[in-house]
């Protein structure tokens, strides 16, 4: 089966004391599944995976498997810039019962091509039963996995099944991989290219409309244009700051952020509130 649809990169709700709000996380999971999401990515970039402990990540995966596992596709954000750590987390994701693992290009280390091959091979082979989604995001990781390398992974590692493509240049189908939009504003383009869906952020707010972009190709670009300003607003500063601010305005579980991520400024909050009002998600006061 193809990996696709609207896969929401879910924020991790935090309580006032900075701990994970487990009840809020479950409430948000259910809200997203009821509002257009086909699946969830837990402890990814938007979920502040970089500042979650392993225990917190595993607990989120367990909660998701228990609470919404029968009705959604669950992806564990198990990658890091440490191959041994990524191997450990990916094995745990498989043991917990996640449907796939999202494994990011190692950041900061800046591995060369041979290093990338060794890294992804080790991670994939550690859990051969678990589908692996490669996560190519050069804006955060410096390294860009070229399409030829992605094709090589597809042909040489059986459980590498998809790529979350979070770059803008050179978007193209990859033989042997499901192509997932890694940025909200390229979902329409990726679908036109034969992609299967996206790992998305704005689907926290407009999941049903983004699902329509997949299901209704004739209306796809009209929907894209209608949502373009919201897509931009959700990235006016580093994610997940804007989407957490939006969720808090809507009374949905989100809470604060963990340093070094910080709360939206008053100017940013005004822009976020304006976007929510324009889309009928929040009444103007």
Structure in words:
The structure is a single chain. Helix 2 links the parallel strand 2 (39-42) and strand 3. The mean pLDDT is 97. The longest helix has 15 residues, at 54-68. An 8-stranded parallel β-barrel has the order 1-2-3-4-5-6-7-8, surrounded by 6 helices. It contains 11 helices and 8 strands. The radius of gyration is 18 Å and the shape is globular. With 285 residues, it is α/β, with parallel strands linked by helices. It is 44% helix and 13% strand. The chain has a single domain (5-215), classed as TIM Barrel (Alpha-Beta Barrel), CATH 3.20.20.
How are the secondary structure elements laid out?
Layout (H helix, E strand, L loop, with lengths): L4 E5 L12 H13 L4 E4 L11 H15 L4 E5 L5 H14 L3 E5 L8 H14 L5 E5 L1 H4 L5 H10 L3 E6 L12 E4 L5 H6 L4 E4 L2 H13 L4 H14 L7 H9 L16 H13 L7
Parallel strand pairs: 1-2, 1-8, 2-3, 3-4, 4-5, 5-6, 6-7, 7-8
Helix pairs in contact: 1-2, 2-3, 3-4, 8-9, 10-11
């Amino acid at each position: 089966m193809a990996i696709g649809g609207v896969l929401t990169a879910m924020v991790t709700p935090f309580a006032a004391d900075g701990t994970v709000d487990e009840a809020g996380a479950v409430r948000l999971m259910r809200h997203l599944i009821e509002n257009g999401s086909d699946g969830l990515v837990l402890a990814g970039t938007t979920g502040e995976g970089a500042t979650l402990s392993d225990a917190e990540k595993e607990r989120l995966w367990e909660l998701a498997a228990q609470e919404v596992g029968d009705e959604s596709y669950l992806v564990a954000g198990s990658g890091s810039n440490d191959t041994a750590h990524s191997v450990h987390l990916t094995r745990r994701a498989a043991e917990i019962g996640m449907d796939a693992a999202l494994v990011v290009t190692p950041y900061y280390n800046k591995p060369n091509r041979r290093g990338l091959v060794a890294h992804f091979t080790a991670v994939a082979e550690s859990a051969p039963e678990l589908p692996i989604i490669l996560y190519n995001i050069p804006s955060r990781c410096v390294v860009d996995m070229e399409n030829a390398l992605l094709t090589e992974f597809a042909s040489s590692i059986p459980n590498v099944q998809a790529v979350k493509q979070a770059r803008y240049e050179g978007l193209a189908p990859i033989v042997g991989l499901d192509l997932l939009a890694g940025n909200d504003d390229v979902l329409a383009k990726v679908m036109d290219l034969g992609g299967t869906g996206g790992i998305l952020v704005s689907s926290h707010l407009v999941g049903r409309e983004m699902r329509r972009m997949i299901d209704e190709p004739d209306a796809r670009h009209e929907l894209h244009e209608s949502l373009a300003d919201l897509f931009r607003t959700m990235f006016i500063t580093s994610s997940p700051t804007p989407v957490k601010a939006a969720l808090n305005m809507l009374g949905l579980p989100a809470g604060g952020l963990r340093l070094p991520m910080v709360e939206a400024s008053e100017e940013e909050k005004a822009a976020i509130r304006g976007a929510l009002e324009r889309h009928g998600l929040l009444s103007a006061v």
